[in-house]
Amino acid sequence: MTTYGERLEAALVTQIKVELVERNMDQKDLADKVGINAVTMSKYMTNKRSVPMPTFFKVAEALSVSPMVLMQRAEARVQPESQTA
Q: Is residue 51 in a domain?
């Protein structure tokens, strides 16, 4: 059983990946723009680590999208718990 927060976090990673594709960027490009190590970005993008809020804001800025819009797009991807089991 997963919590809403876990599903939202996974959806956020998926949305960031979509945003990267739409901008012809890769994780290394994003890591460079955000100012973090590529290995750390990889851990975020594989759900091995949670994205800290300050980093989330930098990611949104690097993708030229507001944090609110990025979160709304991610939230639209969240599946109800009954569909995740």
A: yes
Q: Give CA angle at 77 (71, 80), nearest 5°.
A: 115
CB-based contacts of 54, cutoff 8 Å, min separation 6? none
Query: What are the tokens at 5?
Result: 């927060």
Could you write out the DSSP letters of every residue in 3-47? -HHHHHHHHHHHHHHHHHHHTT--HHHHHHHHTS-HHHHHHHHTT
Q: Are 78 and 13 in contact (CB under 8 A)?
A: no
pLDDT band at 2 (very low <50, low <70, confident <90, very high): confident
- CATH number of 34's domain: 1.10.260.40
The reported pTM is 0.89
In a domain, 49, yes or no: yes
The whole-chain average pLDDT of the chain stands at 93
